[in-house]
Amino acid sequence: MEAVACAIELIHVYSLVHDDLPAMDDDDLRRGRPTCHKAYDEATAILVGDALQPLAFQLLARDSSLPQAPAVRLRLIDMLSEASGTFGMAGGQAIDLEVQGRELDVAAVEDMHARKTGAIISASVLMAAACAPDLAPARYEALAQFAAAIGLAFQIQDDLLDVLGDVSTLGKATGADREHAKPTHPSVIGIEASQERVHLLHQQALDALAPFGERAAPLRSLAHWLLSRNY
Ligand code: IPE
Ligand code: MG
Ligand code: MG
Ligand code: MG
Fold first, then answer.
1. Is the dihedral of CA 61, 113, 223, 50 positive or negative?
2. Do 205 and 143 contact (CB within 8 A), yes or no?
């Protein structure tokens, strides 16, 4: 299962290295340190992303701790491809850039978030579930609901922190979404309604875990952890 977490983290880090590039969000600071293109240069940051991405898939193909069955490995590779590509992160990032300066309704913002952030968070939960082929479909669906709710809440929280957070605790610049005129929950429905939305989604995520009882304690902690940190 660690290989699934590593593969997700490789895609996550690659997506952030590219997200910070001048052609995208043009950020200089990440996790309290200069972004990759600042510490090195743009070509290096592009290539770092290009190199991290296939490493994730190679890990899924090769790691000996994952289920040996080729069908399971293919499913994992397929799930991560779907979550990272056009219908997931990369497509969501394209929408994010395309809609700068435009007015969106909250449903359109949530659709963008589900792709650019939610898809990878859902994949992290559902790929782990896919390693347990005997899992009942209703349980798989419950996990999908949990992950979709927490993934969306995570991006809304990130957008709130862009308005309310401060650079010394976040380790990245604040006010960037406004500077780029990005439609976000705070800009579309306001701070308070955005905080309520995060709260409601967190509750929905926890409710979805009810059928698992105490066995879902690690997922409850994961939800709490995701909502109390930033990228
Ligand atoms: C990035 O969203 C989503 C990715 C797919 C990487 P943001 O652009 O809001 O993330 P931060 O605020 O730079 O961390
Ligand atoms: Mg971005
Ligand atoms: Mg960004
Ligand atoms: Mg952000």
1. positive
2. no
Asked if residue 230 lies in contact with residue 170, where contact means CB atoms within 8 angstroms, the answer is: yes
**Number of domains forming the structure of the chain:** 1
Return the CATH number at 108.
1.10.600.10
Q: Is the CB of 16 under 6 A from ligand 1?
A: yes
Residues 183-223 have pLDDT tens digits of 999 999 999 999 999 999 999 999 999 999 999 999 999 99
Which structural domain, as residue segments, surrounds residue 215?
Answer: 2-228
Calculate mean pLDDT across residues 85-102.
98
Please choose from 9, 116, 154 the residue to mutate so as to test ligand 1's pocket, defined by most ligand atoms within 8 A of CB. 116
The letter for the amino acid at 193 is A
